[in-house]
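Worked example (supplementary).
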Amino acid sequence: MTLLWSRADLLAATSGRFPSSTSHNIAGTGVSIDTRTLNAGDVFIALRGERSNGHEHVAAALHSGAAAVVVHEPCGIDDPRILHVADTLDALRDMARFARARFAGRVVGVTGSVGKTSVKDMLRHALQACGATHYAVASYNNHWGVPLTLARLPADAAYCVSEIGMNHVGEILPLARMVRPDVAVVTTVASSHLGLMGSIDAIAREKAEILRALPAGGTGIIPDGITGEDHFARNAAQAGATLWRAGHNADCPVYAGDATHDARGSRFELRLPGWRGVAHINAPGRHMADNAMLALAAAYACGADMDHAVAGLATFAPGAGRGAMARVMQDKVALLDESYNASPASVRAALDLLGLVATGRRVAVLGDMLELGTFARHEHQALLPALRANADIVFCCGPNMKTLFDTLPSSLQGGWTPDSEQLAPLVRAALRAGDTVMVKGSHGSRMRHVVTALQTDAARVGPA
Ligand SMILES: Nc1ncnc2c1ncn2[C@@H]1O[C@H](COP(=O)(O)OP(=O)(O)O)[C@@H](O)[C@H]1O
Ligand SMILES: [Mg+2]
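After joint prediction of all chains, the assembly is encoded as:
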């Protein structure tokens, strides 16, 4: 296992102190902020969160074989592995900067309103085929997720893929300056978190901040036609970075030609400045093909061998709740499981996907999109054209979806209930052999209930 954190490095990174009486050897092979998932050899950092305090778990961390434990509160335990610092979150950030500074490989930062995790995971599949690749776990993209990912970065890896997220103005730049990406990808600018951000322009301006963290000669990659393109152009120019627009117009530096899409995925011609070839992605949907285009462009900007990167990308598969397809109800119904989360852009993408892959009746099952504040009513009702274009029958739950449901033509109205638990039996009873059903909603809308109800053995289609 790679040595990540020696005693000397921990001291140099954090300016903390170990008990003065000892000089216990330390060989940290990982970094953890949660004792439930801690591995022996991890450096445990006791963070104080809103709901939990890592300082209460110091004994557990030591017992589980932590190589060192970083604290800022007295914990009444005498152990040569305990490192005292002024503030543990600052220490995590210091470790992140230290690990970034000693890293000689290529770093990619991925941000955007939707598609960050998809692009991050596609990119890591592509890069893993080219060299040792370190990457953010799950959606570790916030004030602790970003530094934790960096603190775990092995100095000798070839590539690092970081996901950078935000809910509020001002969050991207400090995280991006920690990551110091060589290549920055912005997946989308869309109305996720609009309630907290106020306007689409404010969102674009915030996403564009990532480009300010690029070095001179670095590369920014944005979708062609992105909202607020001026912000991106200005910030890239100020950084002395190259900005590649990626899209379907022949004048784009990153160009994806007409794709063939089916239920398994997409295949398209890709042209990069200095390379051209055919790419394929085993996740259905135009949005997934666009994500794949961005991921391959980023791999190329990192200097990756593109034949390997294209082959590596083909090993990517969509995760549960993120567009994975399955057959349910004795194989008679196709299920598009998009239940993990939802925002206006991702619901549109999922509806487009439903229209793309369905062969029989198209059934849309939607739960509330959250975090839209005063824009909620408008954003829900604005889904009407996408539903008209891609659905034959619509089931909804939740108070926000009620405002959409009431505007639907009666021919589309399948049913509405206050929550997903009540909706599940309605959907189940309505499905017929040959249907394709797409289930989506914000995490808090718990649309998983509907998916689970469709997956149970008892779920049978009625007579056609
Ligand atoms: N480029 C895109 N445009 C629209 N929706 C997308 C795009 N990429 C992914 N999605 C959808 O958005 C949701 C979140 O995707 P994910 O990759 O986890 O994004 P993030 O990490 O930004 O939250 C999923 O439902 C996914 O299918
Ligand atoms: Mg994510």
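Two points are worth noting when inspecting this output. Residues 286-301 form the longest helix (16 residues). The radius of gyration is 24 Å.
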